[in-house]
UniProtKB/TrEMBL annotation:
Pfam families: DUF4142. Keywords: Signal. The keyword Signal applies. It comes from the Bacteria. It comes from Caballeronia fortuita. This is Membrane protein. Residues 32-165 form the DUF4142 domain. Gene3D superfamilies: 1.20.1260.10. The keyword Signal applies. Residues 1-22 form the signal peptide.
Amino acid sequence: MPRSPKTLIALWLTAAGAFAHAQTPGEKLSPVDQQFIQDAGQAGATELAASKLALTHAADRQVREFAQRMIVDHTKLARNLDVLAKRHGMTAPPSADTAVVGSLQNLQGAEFDKAYIEKVAVDGHRKAVELFRKESESGNDTALKAAAAKALPVISHHYEMAQQLAKTKAAS
């Protein structure tokens, strides 16, 4: 069921607030929760790096618009994850998946569009949905689990948008 932009913004703000406030200062996270923070950080950094490339390498307007939306949304999520990670003593900034970003760097136009949609938009969000779902169901930190659960609808919506973009581009 499609959600209105206003509903998605409300969901996003709720998720962002949960990430920003889900902490016990100085408390070390379990290995499962640390892995989630690392994997979510890398997924976000990859999304940001690839989407920034899309602004200059993509041929299709819809691909560039999708990328711009991902930059805005994933920047907010990254900031909140960063705050949470730092409050738990995790200070190393996440880095993008160099294999994914590197595979896109030398592509242009329709070739870039196809690879970005497949590797970042669809596959990246499919993995992110699973990552956030797993944390929301079986993470050890109660507040982090709740934050992941609240972010999940936004990430799921990104995945739905990516699938629709892929369908639209395959049909054209």
